Amino acid sequence: MIDEAIRILTFQAGFNSAVVVAGTAALGLAGGTVGTFLLLRRRALVSDALSHATLPGIAVAFLIGAALGLPGRSLPLLLAGAVASGVLGLLTVQWLVRQTRLTEDSAIGAVLSVFFGLGIVLLSLIQTLELGGQAGLKTFILGQTAAMAQGEAIAIGLLAAGAAATVALLFKELRALAFDPGFAAVQGWPVARLDLALMGLATLVTVIGLQTVGLILVVALLIIPPAAARFWTDRLSVLTIAAAAIGALSGWLGATLSALLPKLPAGAVIVLVAGAIFLVSFLFAPARGLLAVGLRNGRLRLSFAERRALAGLLAGRPVDGPLAWWLGARGFLRDGRLTPRGEVAAKAAERNRRLWDRFLADYPALVPAHANWGVDPIDEVLPGDMVRLLEERALP
Amino acid sequence: MQYLWRTPGSHTLPEEASPIGPAPLSVRDLTVAYHRKPVLWNVDYTAPNGGLIAVVGPNGAGKSTLIKACLGLVPRVSGTVEVFGQPVAKQRRLIGYVPQRESVDWDFPVSALDVVAMGRYGKIGWFRPVSRAHKEAALHALERVGMADFARRQIGQLSGGQQQRVFLARALAQEAQLYFMDEPFAGVDAATERAVLQVLRDLDAAGRTVICVHHDLQTVAEYFDHVLLMNTRVVAHGPVARTLTPELLGRTYGGQPLPLPVRETAAP
Amino acid sequence: MTLSAQEFLQIDFPALLAAVLACAACALVGNFLVLRRQGMMGDAVSHAVLPGIVAGFLIAGTRETMPMMVGALAAAALSGVLIEAVRRLGRLESGAAMGVVFTVMFAAGVVMIEQAAARGVDLDADCVLYGQLETILWLAPTGWGSLLDPAAWAAMPREVVTLAAVFVLCVALVVLFRKELTITTFDPALASTLGIPAGLFHYGVVLLVAATAIAAFEAVGSILVIAMLIAPPAAARLLTDRLGVQLVLSVALGVLAAVAGYGAAAFGPLLLGGEHSLSAAGMIAVASGLILALAALFGPTHGVLGRRRALGRLRGAGAVAAEGRSS
């Protein structure tokens, strides 16, 4: 089992499985890159409407194919139908938001459920017509990598790589769009066309992801990788690369797992892998992860409390409770009185507070954004000559 | 049954005539931080009993945050807020609030009267419908701001100034002792400005305390008795005449009234 | 084509009743999602309950409704808490937070279903997605007279009884807490300063939506639930400016969609000469979509065409005034 896993992961389990795994990884990579900008444009869930809206198009395309006498299911035709009705769904969302008082969430919810409902009606119609070959249609709903033929996997990989490359080429423009669309428009960027390009890329990723991941879960490829990457960095270029990497990793591991366990639907496995990466990022990423932020906030609170308690002790106000225990553990307090070390710390804290106060009073416009002002030692944040100047003014 | 949440307790109000009761608002060592950046820093402030108080400072100085922290709407890093000598959570019925106009969805399917009646919910309590008496009180509040004719209008059909007056009427309907108002004069027409001012003066005459975030330096002295100058920390507070000096304003708005230290080596 | 009273009452009537009750309950609670701009919460919750349903089924080992309901409700509550946690603690916009949580939970549910299948138990994702409206049968009636027979009503299928109870619960809660639901939706900050727990009402609405959705799933499937939570309230929103009217109207539109959709699915093909009926849940969703589209186009004050006409009149008046000045 483990040998098998390693062989698939390293693309040595036969050409077919290698192509499927590589194709799925490329899909994840494209989802991460395109999704980054969807996330920043606050459009994450629009792609959910898009993916659900593909179903009626697939069904209609199947009916047309049957009417034209095409054998079985013709994939290009089905995907063309998916694109057509997906785009129609997107346009409907946009029309509802622009032309009526409905908000985007309602428009998305209405479009995705009504279009999907129509798709279900058409599927039930196809079932009654007994055309043959309709069994494959349902794989679009939950996805199936096992069904992927070699040629299809190669096509998916190439298209996904193309989508990612387009994002790389348009990076500067998309960054302007994501950061401040109003400003970008004033600067002469073609904002409407960029938005269109972004939605076009989202449509591409969705449609080529239909077969692998299924239309219910394909939205996860666009949302989870950038959301997970967000915890690791505040820089857009790093964010995009991290999202692409997380997406590719999810696709790669997910496709491998589902090759090992062919009973499990591939889409669900890929999404669970991505979800696991998200969870790890959410909890443990050093930049914005829960643990890191919690520790930072806790330290901030503790420093505030400690500084206040020390200043109080210096002024003769006693401290009790857990704070007294903490000061004791730090060696600042013994038998309710400041130790010599504590006295030094209290005086330093008091000086720090006064200098910060003076600084905020005299130069409010110069306050550095990155510092925990008032808590961080002022000598480490401000240049020495500024500190000396403040000392002259603040300390008697 | 009244809305008592988290801290049930009696509402204590000092004898109205007493000149030295607990202050309407007393803030001690209040620090609020959004993520890493402190927005309020060691704020100490005690509001005088009765009177109109303006909170003045540049954008991003934490004026709205101060009000929200006083109302318990944003978490505090440190500090205490007392209203008439008791923690703010116990004194909700004594507090009225006028948020910024942008804070709600004006497309919401309610009429002006419905919105004003919301100010009475604290007095109505769970399960009971809005009675005729409360509706009349709401209508009366609308009259006081000159909006009685618009009572049945959907709020989205009102102009910005009219919407502001509806919010003000809602605060009046709360019949509070201490009012917090977030920029009630922002972006309103002349008629609304007069109406708001009249309401403030009525409240003042009735012995209420009103704390207003205010952005227009031109009118502070004309409209208000007291001023709290702040920029993340409290710069100064007191009667307008003594506090609204060029020197203190300069320090509030960070117009660099003091020379920056110059590195000797950097000078040519 | 002929349809005997007995056939109609045994096959179509209970299904129709279930659809009507499900649509009415969903439409009523959906109003608060639409007004809170949390329309996608219905979507998120109805996907996220899948692992709960499967877990309830696997733990209890039966297809009884109760364990599945309990599991689903637990999963819904978990998803609500997780979405809020990811949104607040992770500082992600709510759409992305929902997208992450519901796709992962749904994927977990799909994998769990396969595990169940491996153990030789048949539980189908399809029935959660599309429901099984067509399998709700009321065997008691023999003719129209049975509608007056209490004994026959007592034999009403369990799904219908559950849905009726949920509908009554929704109406009762909305009536009882109308004030608080309104203020916490419109201005949560003011609600908090008045001592009304706005956060609790947020979770309360999510849980009520979840309970309604779960009760409706079995009968009509998750897709129809999402459509019913959004489309009728959204349509009502375009037709009125009064909350009370909106609440009643949305229920009425939901019922209309249920009747029209069911009728089209069950009898449409027969009228056109086909033999089989179409997916009723899908057709009801389509009907609700048509109602929304009509409201968006032809709504008197907020419809697109109505607004355009009003604008045209305004322009016309302007032109007349301009002419008046120039002459």
> H/E series of chain A, N to C?
HHHHHHHHHHHHHHHHEEHHH
| Rounded radius of gyration of chain A (Å) | 29 Å
Shape of chain B: globular
Q: State the separation between the terminal residues of chain A, measured CA to CA.
A: 75 Å
Report the order of strands and helices of chain B.
EEEHEEEHHHHEHEHEEHH
Strand content of chain B: 15-25%
What does the overall shape of chain A look like? Answer: elongated
**Class of the largest domain in chain A, according to the CATH hierarchy?**
Mainly Alpha
Q: Can you describe what's shown?
A:
The complex is a heterotrimer of chains A (396), B (268) and C (327). With 396 residues, chain A is mainly alpha-helical. Chain A is built from 19 helices and 2 strands. The radius of gyration of chain A is 29 Å and the shape is elongated. The termini of chain A are far apart. Chain B is built from 9 helices and 10 strands. In chain B, the strands form 2 sheets. In chain B, strands 6-7-8-3-9-10 form a 6-stranded mixed beta sheet, with helices on both faces. A 4-stranded antiparallel beta sheet of chain B has the order 2-1-4-5, with helices on one face. In chain B, a hairpin with a 2-residue loop joins strand 4 and strand 5. Mean pLDDT of chain B is 84; it is low at 5-19 and 262-268. Chain C has a single domain (5-326), classed as Orthogonal Bundle (ABC transporter involved in vitamin B12 uptake, BtuC), CATH 1.10.3470.10. Chain C has helices at 5-35, 39-48, 50-60, 65-89, 94-118, 125-130, 150-154, 158-176, 178-186, 188-193, 198-239, 243-271, 280-298, 304-326. In chain C, helix 8 crosses helix 11 (198-239). Chain C starts with a helix and ends with a helix. The mean pLDDT of chain C is 86. The B-C interface holds B 2-5, 68, 71-73, 92-93, 95, 97, 99, 103-105, 108-111, 114-115, 118, 121-122, 124, 126-127, 129-130, 154, 156-157, 170 and C 35, 37, 176, 178-180, 182-183, 185-187, 189-197, 237, 240-243, 245-246.
Quick rundown:
With 396 residues, chain A is mostly helical.
Task: Chart the SSEs and their pairings.
The complex is a heterotrimer of chains A (396), B (268) and C (327).
Chain A: H1 2-9, H2 15-40, H3 46-52, H4 54-67, H5 75-99, H6 104-129, H7 139-142, H8 150-169, H9 171-179, H10 181-186, H11 191-213, H12 218-229, H13 236-260, H14 266-284, H15 290-314, H16 322-329, E1 333-334, E2 337-338, H17 340-362, H18 378-381, H19 384-394
Antiparallel strand pairs in A: 1-2
Chain B: E1 26-34, E2 37-46, E3 51-56, H1 63-70, E4 78-83, E5 86-87, E6 95-98, H2 112-118, H3 121-124, H4 132-144, H5 160-173, E7 178-182, H6 190-205, E8 209-213, H7 217-223, E9 226-231, E10 233-239, H8 240-243, H9 246-253
Parallel strand pairs in B: 3-8, 3-9, 6-7, 7-8
Antiparallel strand pairs in B: 1-2, 1-4, 4-5, 9-10
Chain C: H1 5-35, H2 39-48, H3 50-60, H4 65-89, H5 94-118, H6 125-130, H7 150-154, H8 158-176, H9 178-186, H10 188-193, H11 198-239, H12 243-271, H13 280-298, H14 304-326
